[in-house]
Amino acid sequence: MPPPSNLRSSPGIDIHRGIAVILMFLAHAWRMQSSSTSANPFLWIDRTLRELDRGVAYVAASFLFLAGYSLVLARNSSTQSNFCFFLGILRRSGWLYLIAILMFIAEHGTDLPDLAASPGILSMIAVALVITSAGILCPRPILALASISITVVTATFILESLGYAVSGLNSGPGGAIPLIAYSTLGAICAILQMGQRTRSLMVIAAASFPVFIFALLSSSSWLALYPSTYSYHGGLAIASLLGFGANHSGHIVRVFWNPSTIGTIGLVFPVLLTTTVLVSLERIPLMLRLCRPVLKLGRHSLLAFLAHYALLGSAELCQFKPSHGGWTLSMTLILTLTCWGAAEIFDRIRRRCADRSTH
Known about the structure:
The protein has 359 residues and is mainly α. It has 16 helices and two strands. The protein has helices at 11-32, 43-52, 57-77, 82-107, 114-117, 121-136, 141-162, 180-193, 199-217, 237-241, 261-266, 268-281, 285-290, 292-299, 301-317, 325-358, and strands spanning 223-231, 251-259. The radius of gyration is 21 Å and the shape is globular.
């Protein structure tokens, strides 16, 4: 399977992104589960999912890392000037931010400041794309990107130490600090890896392993939790906005996570190790055939993201929630197969349109 025509990625990177997509499906289905303590034949699955949920930051860190990595691939394959390339990133980021705002309204309503400053992970990725692309286009990109990474991690430590929660920075659904550091790290790794296959990735992964062990042995939590207060809608805000739900008053506190300082440095090794292994194996044809569904999900991650949110939102509006781990895994499988099918259909439509344009 050849790489996508825009060369924003590679098969190994797509598979890594696809793995992150499936783990995201699992995490969101698990969050919908109505109970995790009832005695049932699936109790062992509930306990396993509870343990896996502790590593949820790996998913977000992977998405941001791969976004920065793919930016370098896109810049290297583009014939545009730096100015035009940056304008394209701004346009793409603007659409992502707008989608994040619309999704925030559907889920939480119109409460400020999170609506504008921290609407969701898509807004976080949009900000990361702009900042990382600016670093890539600097005369000394590695120095610029490293400076951004250090600044972001330092800001994370300061805000965490002072106990400050700032919407858009470290709190809300789309708090950008410290995850932007993964986007710049991904760009640095891609720049160093160019022409050396996986040698640079292996070296950086090996260097980050002692830090991973230190973070693992630390008593500090890898997640920092920050509350946000929203108007209470009795469920998804879109139901009230469309007149489907009953009128409610009052407020509800939602708690969102972001990697802590120790979690930020601890996640570097797992993310890098995954990328190193998958990029090393991407030249094996059998690997690509076996991983085709995962690769397709990664190649069309935005489509999968939007589709799974629509499916989960419809399930919640219908008041369907998994009652145990067995149903949660089944829902994850349904989301995976549905989004894979949508990605295949999208590719076929795009190929037909390309064929018609050439005739």
